[in-house]
């Protein structure tokens, strides 16, 4: 029996099932296109922006490091939610196939964030590895159907 303050409830309280952001039936055939033409280009744009900040506006590198740290915490939260069985869908509504790749993703973002916070102008170059690894993982998944 569960206690809810002063009320005792005889049955466990059901949890709401995670609902995809975009219904899968509407996007399933478009998911590869969203991955190749939205996800990967955004990752390259972010890494390029961090490189340019490091090269030409190094006083903003600290702000970029804070942004990468916050983003890394968000990715880490996704890993925890996936391990707990609460996160099965990605941002575009498809089933998450990149579960094991999230660890690399978080490692690269936190490493880049640490070096940006230490004011190293080359911190963005670490983040360039992220879309490259993502593209390789996408090739493996979409060509062979492997869960990574």
How does this structure look, described?
This protein has 148 residues and is mainly alpha-helical. It has one domain (32-144). Helices cover 62% and strands 4% of the residues. The protein has 5 helices and 2 strands, in the order E-E-H-H-H-H-H. The protein has helices spanning 24-27, 31-56, 61-83, 101-117, 123-144, and strands spanning 2-4, 7-9. Strand 1 and strand 2 form a beta hairpin. The mean pLDDT is 85.
Features:
mainly alpha, two-stranded antiparallel sheet, 2 strands
Please give the count of helices. 5
- The percent of residues in helical segments reads 55-70%
Largest sheet: 2 strands, antiparallel
Strand order of the largest sheet: 1-2
Q: Give the number of DSSP strands.
A: 2
The helix/strand class is mainly alpha
Condensed summary:
With 148 residues, the protein is mainly alpha-helical. Helix content is 62%, strand content 4%. The chain is globular, with a radius of gyration of 19 Å.
Give the helix/strand layout.
Blueprint lengths: L1 E3 L2 E3 L14 H4 L3 H26 L4 H23 L17 H17 L5 H22 L4
Antiparallel strand pairs: 1-2
Helix pairs in contact: 2-5, 3-4, 4-5
């Amino acid at each position: 029996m569960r206690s809810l303050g002063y009320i005792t409830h005889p049955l466990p309280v059901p949890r709401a099932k995670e609902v995809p952001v975009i219904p899968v039936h509407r996007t399933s055939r478009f998911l590869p296109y969203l991955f190749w033409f939205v996800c990967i280009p955004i990752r390259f744009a972010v890494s390029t922006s961090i490189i340019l900040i490091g090269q030409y506006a190094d006083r903003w590198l600290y702000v970029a490091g804070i942004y990468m740290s916050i983003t890394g915490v968000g990715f880490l939260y996704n890993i925890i939610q996936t391990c707990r069985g609460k996160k099965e869908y990605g941002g575009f509504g498809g089933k998450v196939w990149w579960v094991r790749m999230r660890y690399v993703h978080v490692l690269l973002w936190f490493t880049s964030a640490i070096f940006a916070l230490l004011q190293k102008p080359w911190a963005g170059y670490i983040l360039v590895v992220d879309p490259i690894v993502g593209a390789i993982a996408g090739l493996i998944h979409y060509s062979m159907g492997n869960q990574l």
